[in-house]
Amino acid sequence: MTFRSDDRGVTVQVGTILLFATLVVAMSLYQATAIPSQNQTVEFRHNERVQGQMQDVRNAIVRTGATGTGQPTSVTLGTQYPGHVLFVNPPPASGSLRTAKLGSTTIEHLSATDSETRDYFDGGGHSFSTRALVYAPNYDQYANAPDTVYENTVVYNRGRDGNATLTDQQLVHGTRITLVTVNGSLSRTQSGTVSLDPHALSPSTTMTRTISVQSDGNDPVIRIPTTLGVAKWTRLLADQRYVQSVGSGADGTVAVTLKGRENGTNVTYDLRMAAVGVGSNTTETNATYITNVSPKTETVNGTTTLVAEVRDRYNNPVSGVTVTSSDGGRTETTNEQGRVRFEYEASEPGTETVTLSIDDNGAERERVSFRIETASGGTGSGGGGTYDVEWVDAAGLDCTHDANGYPTVCTLDRSATSTHTLTANVTYGGEPVTDTTVDFGLNRTGVVSTSSKEATTGDHGEVQVSIDDSSTGDVKLLAASGGDADSVVVHVVQSGAMPEIVYNGDAAATRGYRNSGPKSGVVFSVTNERPEGATLTDVHVEPHDSTIDALSDPSYGTGIYESELYVSAQRDGASDIGNGVSLPTTIDIDSDGQNLGPPFRQNPIIGGNNGTATFYLYQFERNGTPVEMANEPVDVTLTFENHDPVSFTLDANDGGNGGGGGEQTTAYPDAFNDGDGALEYGEDPSIPPSNPEGGLEGFGNLDVDSNDNQVAALREYYRHPDGFEMSIGVSVSGIESRNHHTLVLGDYRTSGGGSHEVSVTPVNENGDPLGGSYTLSESSTTTRRIDLPQAVVEYVNDNGTLYLVFEDRNSNQDERLRIDYLSVESSDD
């Protein structure tokens, strides 16, 4: 018997094997291409957030140096990749944050105007070592990610192609010089968040000092150790009128030369210095010199008080230092202001010198001498010095006066105004005493506060101090100088409701200049009911939803809806922060910002007598995506120079700009994908095409009609085996569902060596055409409106996004497309 062969099951088996093989190949391809592309996007957005956090670190260091109080902050060194069921991700990306050796900042040819301070700070070179703080990412895909560096009050990105600054400098501002050095050792490498606790090494107390300095006859020079380079520092200092030149110095420094004289006189600069510790192994500052506070020469007929102050090498007060008097070898310890007081009792007529000293009294700067002339013998009644101190004026207060017309009791009505200025006068033998220090004090706290603890008399022997009320009650305000003191009683009352700075309850979500997409901005206003203006310094922003993690405007410009914060008031102000800022955040308005100059880099002023200020916050993001802010609560705290902080919660309704109903709306590009190999602002490798070719320059210019002044350029690159190729993707998101969508290509023209033809094709998220391609071939500037077909309209209505691919293939010619703006207009008409 013979049997016939049976092959009926072979086809099914072969088909199954082929299907399985195809699935394996597809999954392998997805693992090799799509997963890395998605991870690169995650890494890019994380890097943008870290750049914002490094700006927060910079602000914390600068504020710590200014206040003597630590400002904790944090940096997220790494990031997590999204999970996949069937695919594999690398381990979480990590990063490192470390201090790096920088060198010493040197100040040359500046000498203190005060003679005792000049014993230490003379015209010779004074060097202060400092370090940089460097964040270095370790990504899996984003290979060209820059290091982000803080040094000398500046944050910048350090990449292979050069450096890009993210903040302005605070080293020189007019005649103000601010030196904040970093001391310590830090080295952390991890994928999580690292906390930083900058702490003040100088000032070692909460008291800081600014000294007046002038040229010693040569132009002053500040030598900065830096890796930023001369060109960048030249640009950072370009708007400083007292900077004469910026050039290269020895040992990798940049030499900043200041004006020594102007209009035939020496320029006086205000110098403030500080040292901030970061990490471990920090070095505390020590007492360096002692200077007088009370006059160095006095004529007394009884008892007088000698006051001196001990400072460190940064000119800041040092507490807890033992000071020895030559009068009997007595010792006292400096208080939190770095000051000591010695009572001197004259025993007989004549002249005596009393010297107060620190350490071993070996150097001139370690001692200060007081020359005391005793007019007559006896102990007297105390306090009878040469000077006569009197309160002479209290502008705007209702006062009673003594027989000489000097105020003795003054009434301050909190309901009318909270700030007033009082004037004291210092004389000797009836003549005004100039350039002497007057100390201010209060016999109790909690009623009023003074604008300063001391001031120096002017040409007429007068000195002023402002007081701000805190509560009702009586307090005695004292002014003391040269062994004499005077007091005035301030009687604080409240006759009616207190004028305040109030939030108007008008927060509204807004799209800014865009008429579609999520309302990712918030607008609100406040009113200043007080009669005097209020100077705004800081704005704290904290959404209740902690996943709303960034405030970042998408524009390269500066202004309303083009800056993260814009305040429109009697005097405007703005902060335009490179790559945005992580939330929650506190924005220091006149410091935080990228490349801002007047009139924006300034603290806004809200006018008095019901003056208003409108705040524009734009735009809120979650993981790099704009967030709909309608009904999203946001806590805001406003900090002022001359008013207590004001806190409130914004609950934005749906009252912002943007279309609805049958109105026409307009959406603009939000991302692109090209093949030039560099991950740039607005680039998203996850959008089609999957294999881009060519490059797009000036993406940020696509969202506004600039009358052909600022344009984007799409061009081919010679990187493809077949020669020149272009395949560039652009996405337009936030498109509202409507009956009609029109693609607008504004003020474009093509050029190049071939037919000058570039096609634009609407595609879905996978890069598949949705119906129809459109050829652009005009060599002269043209605006074209394309009514999108029904298949495209349905896709856009379902997804809210339009993907466009600009192509020129197989021409082997360097074609280019120059375009001013691109938009999608949507309506029901």
Low-confidence stretches: 376-385, 654-661
How much β-strand is present in the residues? 35-45%
> Mean pLDDT, nearest integer?
83
The tally of structural domains comes to: 5
Shape: elongated
> What Rg is obtained from the alpha carbons, in whole angstroms?
34 Å
Helices and strands: which structural class?
mainly beta
The biggest beta sheet reads: 9 strands, antiparallel
Residues in helix, %: under 10%
**What's the total helix number?**
4
Gap between N and C termini, in Å?
A: 82 Å
Overall strand count: 65
What descriptors fit this protein?
Immunoglobulin-like; six-stranded mixed sheet; 829 residues; 65 strands; mainly beta
Describe the structure.
This is Big-1 domain-containing protein. The chain crosses the membrane at residues 12-30. InterPro entries: Big_1_dom, Ig-like_fold, Invasin/intimin_cell_adhesion. Residues 289-371 form the Big-1 domain. Keywords: Membrane, Transmembrane, Transmembrane helix. The protein has 829 residues and is mainly beta. The chain folds into 5 domains: 42-277, no CATH class; 289-374, Macroglobulin (MG2) domain (Immunoglobulin-like, Sandwich), CATH 2.60.40; 387-399 and 417-483, Immunoglobulin-like; 501-651, Sandwich (Immunoglobulin-like); 665-827, Jelly Rolls (Sandwich). Helix content is 10%, strand content 44%. It contains 4 helices and 65 strands. Strands 2, 4, 5, 6, 7, 10, 14, 15 and 16 form a 9-stranded antiparallel beta sheet that branches. Strands 3, 8, 9, 12, 13 and 19 form a 6-stranded mixed beta sheet that branches. The chain has a 6-stranded mixed beta sheet with strand order 29-30-38-37-33-35, with no helix packed on it. The longest helix is centred in the N-terminal third of the chain and has 58 residues, at 10-67. The termini are far apart. Residues 376-385 and 654-661 have low confidence and may be disordered.
